[in-house]
Design a protein that fits this description.
Strand content of chain B: under 5%
Number of strands of chain A: 6
Oligomer: heterodimer
Largest interface: A-B, 35 and 36 residues
Strand content of chain A: 15-25%
Number of helices of chain A: 9
Radius of gyration of chain B: 13 Å
Radius of gyration of chain A: 18 Å
Largest sheet of chain A: 6 strands, mixed
Distance between the termini of chain A: 36 Å
Number of strands of chain B: 0
Strand order of the largest sheet of chain A: 1-2-3-4-5-6
Number of helices of chain B: 4
Distance between the termini of chain B: 28 Å
Chain lengths: 226, 100
């Protein structure tokens, strides 16, 4: 089993521009330090209808109400501002930004648990005698004997047979070579929704790990739900 | 008199139906939409039943009303589908409930 940079086709080059946008890094940084309520705020505002910050403050009284302390309120204001900036990029762009933010957030959280140099983006995993998958993995942890492959999604609707099959194939091919590969799907959505989506899927998911909005911090080695 | 947790969550459940109606135009996802409404309505009802009669936290009633208005303003069926998962989370945060 070995890792390789993905080839840069036209779509990848365009998407790389989104991934490199400073807005993505800023959002990922804020969300890495955020608690569960701020992450729910980001999920709502990044794909909401209104761009009025006052409306979002009204919807989240525990973050912006009189009982919120100054530090928590400041963090929530920063998350709200970056989320509305994403939402303001327009319908097509915001979808791409959201995906890129989940990937960047995954990279940051993993970097808190393993050496940052072991965390890579857009990599293919190659196995002897096995055709290369078309789509690269969003994030990989490349530690000998403890490799991890991550596919990142904004919502549970992104859980499909193609994703499940690719992760399962990688895990099985690694085992065939006597290697251990942890296959993970990260979804910036509620666990209950993801389980609902998975319940109607027939693709294999044995050994697949799922990280959801409630459990993002586990990637950083933290088991709490904040 | 302050509204109760179960009363404000009933308003959130009503908003799920509004979102489902908008999202149902995506033909190949009707089952998923139906599943989400069933699962999240049940979850919100269960929280409401557990906390029946408890006063809602300050701001929760206004939050749910504004949340309902946001849901009603969504016309894109794909966004409405996404919000079938988002709205219950916001409602639960508003009433100070733990992640479910």
């Amino acid at each position: 089993m070995r890792f390789q940079n993905a080839a840069q086709d036209g779509r990848a080059i365009v998407y790389a521009g989104i991934q490199a946008d400073p807005l993505v890094a800023r959002a990922a940084s804020l969300l890495a330090d955020a608690g569960y309520p701020e992450r729910v705020l980001a999920r709502a505002a990044m794909n909401g209808q209104t761009l009025d910050p006052g409306a979002w403050r009204t919807m989240f009284p525990t973050l912006f109400g009189p009982d919120a302390d100054d530090g928590a309120r400041a963090r929530a204001e920063a998350v709200l501002a970056v989320s509305l900036e994403v939402a303001g990029r327009g319908e097509e762009a915001r979808s791409q930004f959201r995906g890129a933010i989940v990937e960047a957030l995954t990279e940051r959280l993993l970097g808190q648990r393993v050496p940052a140099t072991a965390v890579q983006r857009e990599r293919r995993i190659l196995f002897d005698g096995v055709p290369t998958e078309i789509h690269p993995y969003d994030v990989t942890v490349e530690v000998p004997g403890a490799a991890e492959a991550y596919d990142c999604k904004w919502g549970a609707r992104g859980i499909g047979a193609d994703v499940l099959n690719q992760l399962d194939d990688a895990r099985r091919h690694a085992a065939d070579e006597g290697e251990h590969l942890v296959a993970v799907i990260v979804i910036f959505d509620a666990a209950r929704t993801c389980q609902t989506r998975l319940a109607r899927q027939t693709a294999p998911r044995n050994g697949l790990r799922m990280v959801t909005l409630e459990t993002l911090d586990r990637m950083a080695g933290v088991s709490r739900v904040t | 008199m302050a509204p109760t947790v179960d009363a404000v969550l009933l308003r959130a459940i009503a908003s799920l139906s509004v979102l489902a109606s908008t999202a149902s135009t995506v033909e190949d996802e009707w089952q998923y939409v139906s599943d989400l409404v069933t699962v999240w309505s049940g979850t919100l009802r269960a929280v409401g039943a557990t906390r029946a009669g408890q006063s809602a936290p300050p701001g929760a009633e206004t939050a749910i009303d504004r949340l309902a208005a946001e849901a009603a303003s969504i016309s894109d069926p794909h966004r409405a589908m996404d919000w079938l998962s988002t709205l219950p989370l916001v409602a639960l945060v508003a009433v100070g409930d733990a992640p479910r």
